Amino acid sequence: MEIELINTGSELLLGRVLNTHQQWLCRRLADLGHTVARQIAVPDTARDIQQAVREALARAEMVIVTGGLGPTSDDITRDLIAQLLGKKLMREEAIIAHIKNYFAARNRPMPANNDVQAMVPEGAVVLPNPNGTAPGLAMAVNPNLFRADGKPAWLVMLPGPPRELRPMFDDSVVPILRREFPQETPFACRTLRTGGVGESAVQEKIQTSLAALVADGLGIGYCARVGQVDVRLTARGPAAGKMVGVAEAVVQRLLQANIYGYDDEEIEQVVVRQLAGKKLTLALAESCTGGAIADRVTNVPGASAVFLGGVVSYANSAKEQLLGVPVETLRQHGAVSEAVAREMAAGAREKFGADFALAVTGIAGPGGGTPEKPAGTVFLALAGASGTAVERKLNLYEREAFKQLTAQQALEMLRQRLAAS
Amino acid sequence: MEIELINTGSELLLGRVLNTHQQWLCRRLADLGHTVARQIAVPDTARDIQQAVREALARAEMVIVTGGLGPTSDDITRDLIAQLLGKKLMREEAIIAHIKNYFAARNRPMPANNDVQAMVPEGAVVLPNPNGTAPGLAMAVNPNLFRADGKPAWLVMLPGPPRELRPMFDDSVVPILRREFPQETPFACRTLRTGGVGESAVQEKIQTSLAALVADGLGIGYCARVGQVDVRLTARGPAAGKMVGVAEAVVQRLLQANIYGYDDEEIEQVVVRQLAGKKLTLALAESCTGGAIADRVTNVPGASAVFLGGVVSYANSAKEQLLGVPVETLRQHGAVSEAVAREMAAGAREKFGADFALAVTGIAGPGGGTPEKPAGTVFLALAGASGTAVERKLNLYEREAFKQLTAQQALEMLRQRLAAS
Fold first, then answer.
1. Structure pTM?
2. In terms of residue numbers, what domain contains A50?
């Protein structure tokens, strides 16, 4: 069974907004074991929307269309789809009542144009929208209308705003999927997230050992980002869970120290969980990452239980005044040096009274390098009760990627220390 | 002329990664006056990629394919497209040399599988990749192969990593667009970015005054995000530049204080430029934003000339120890209060010896609120030579959006102060 996703909205094709529906819906569907075979974005024009829906219904057993259900003149999805499927639009009084209540609860008058949201194609299922006015719609499509094989298909229409779409998907679309498309064969999926190894090196390390499983139907996908490679293992069939489990054990054995997390986990979540589990606290001293590590750590719910704070010591004077780095160390070794990284970490640990402190100092470039310390040079330091360790890296990336990679490496250094202890 | 965008990658359809290429490429193309008619994401399977490319080449005059040019087994775009277009793949020694240099500069051995990236379809233009190993490729497609009308079309293949794709698009694809698809009629586009006003209020303020220009062909687009509304003005035709210029002056006059930037400018870029122009320095004291403001400021090239540093004072002890907030103020007013915000800003200004200091303290929620200070309450403080100002906000968003909106508001407070002085 294949699903296709159609995102409508001229603003998407003008690049004014980021399409977050794709990732969210695809992730949810993949976790349920369904395959999204294609995602398409089209502008709010009748020709494009109808063409995209017609083509998708010829291929997929479920087509999910997002956007264009609101009350304004560019909200045309409902009409176009009713026309395409040859369905009359009927006014549903229950929806009018819901919209009236929605505005009444907010002490606002209901604008007249909201009426169109109560029009429902004949035979469609109305998907309630507790977080907005436009309901979603779902309908079985005449099997002989678009498909050569006469298989049944479903068309689902969801409103554009994420806070309306997401709960509606979970509450109303998932039950339809379970009822109409029960899974014939089990599906299993596991993603192992690694740091510190390149994509081709990861592949070289695990490929041969997984060859026999691949021959039996194991799927391996690699997804590389700055400083990280995800290895995604999938299988389908009665032995899917076992096959993915065996493959995971192989990858575990071969990449052990480089695996920082599983599935959706980010390294900052792993580190916050590790610290919380051991009731330990963290402080930061960031120079070249400029607050990027603190930003990531504080994105994790519950970070306040382990994260005391940090100093972004961009100027040398801040390294002296706020972290207590001796002016002599700065003068003798330079701000980007092992000695200064060490003092920054020790200083942050002391000032915040934390169990651990991570410090980073480096040259983002493109300027500022020397033959001994070229642009991209970074020193990472981790101070703990047993002393301070320093690592040197060469991160040849432009500004934002440089910051993200350095942040990832610093968090990885802490993760490995916590995992070992 | 129409352009279609095909993003390849099974990870996209599994929801493992967010597709940022769509927004970035669509924005760039739209601002150059081109229409992206459709965007499609397909998994890394031969059937899906070839089908999507074949269909797109039947409709569009340029098809841009992203991803699948790397060295691993799921990087199959190059091969599939050569096959589809009936082109042989030839090994280019210059690319091998580039890849060898790339690894040598990083003191890493070149894995053998990197060789495949040097394979180029006959007649293709190689697009250099200074930021990675896989070059891009561009080629004119045989006009009679896919199109009924025999019009020429171009196929462009770009590598998946954004830090490789973006400069390659600007440096190598834009010149091909200019040469192969010169605009028949001039196109002009200007985006004015506003903060602190809602979408319908922005529209109400400018709509009537622009009505005559709209009747003459001016396009106005509104795009609302958390805390910001972009107004995009476009025109096509011999007088396009003049029309957009007149419209811009009208919007300037009506929204003056709320306009923070133009086109792709972010508020942190504006603030760094303002500070640099006045030779003033900045320090930060962040509680609920957790380093997000520092991270944004330090993303701006040249930030080190004006940004001295910041304290992420997540724990109350950090507010006392590092910013000198009196324990009595914390006890009496609570960490989220006007008094504490004021002390944080004054403390940061003094500790860093900065001309200005911004401070934020708030309750991200969902927990932690009281009837007097519900979750979402934020105090922003700006300390300067002439004293400290404090603003109170209620930001009802989930964790990450809350941090971003609060950061935006704090930077806007500084921008307005600098603009007024």
1. 0.85
2. 2-180
